[in-house]
Amino acid sequence: MELTKLQQIIKEKYYTVDAKSGPLFLLAVLFEEVGELAEAVRRNDVAGVEEELADVLFMILSIANLFNINPEKRLIEKYVEGDPSERWDLP
């Protein structure tokens, strides 16, 4: 399934609740989920990482829906068609 299709399904199922919650609430939930992801990574808990990545992606798509943004398009432009890795501060 393409990311855009998944985003549309999430919008159809959750947009009403997300719109009532508002972007700042969704952002707070995203931060919470990222924290849980960090903890799963720290514990090297593969099942936990999988679970939390799903939660983080869900929150990202929910926020994108509120702003009527297609992150798949920009992701492809930036990381598939482009290559920002030369600007990364890596050893």
Domain count = 1
CATH topology: Helix Hairpins
CATH uppermost class: Mainly Alpha
Average pLDDT over all residues: 95
The computed structural class is mainly alpha
Q: End-to-end span in angstroms? A: 35 Å
Strand content: under 5%
Shape: globular
Biggest beta-sheet profile: none
Radius of gyration: 15 Å
- Share of helix, binned: over 70%
CATH architecture: Orthogonal Bundle
Count the beta strands: 0
| CATH homologous superfamily designation | MazG-like
- pLDDT < 50 stretches: none
What is the helix/strand order?
Answer: HHHH
What is the count of helical runs? 4
What brief labels describe this structure?
single chain; globular; Helix Hairpins; mainly alpha; 91 residues
